[in-house]
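One thing: mind reviewing this one?
=====
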Amino acid sequence: MTSTIATETRTATETKTTPITGIVIGASRIVISFLFGFHGLQGFGFFGGIDGQGGSVPFGSFPGWWGSVLELAGALLLFVGLASRPAAVLLSGVMAFAYFTVHAPMGLLPLQNMGEPAAVYSWVFLLFAAIGPGRFALDNLRKHRR
C-alpha cells in the first residue's frame, strides 16, 4: 500500500505576511479615505464645489446628493476602520456606478472620458474589501474584545 505525504509549498507569487504589511495597508486605507472624503465634501460646496465656484448638488437629488452622502460617510467609516469591508464594497460600487453612468457615455477609455479617478477608486476600494483594513482600525479593537 502506498501513502501520500502532503507537503506545503509556496509559489513565487505568494508573499509572506510581515508586520510591515498591516502597517502599509492601514496607512494606505487612511490616506486614500482621507483624500476620497474631499470628493464627498465637494458635493456639498466645499473645496470649490462641483463647479469650481462653490456650487453644490441640490438637496436630496439622485444620484448627486446621495452619492456625496455615501462618499463622505463611507470615507469616514473607512478612515477610522469601522465596518471597513462593507464600507469599501459600498464605495467601490458607488465609484463603479459613477464611472458607468457619468464617464463611460462620454468615451470608451478612462483617459478619454475623465473617469480615471472613478475607476481607480473603485478598484482600490474593492482591494480594501478583499484584504481588510490593515492596522490602526477600530475593527481590530472589536476583534480583540471578543
Observations:
- The longest helix spans residues 19-42.
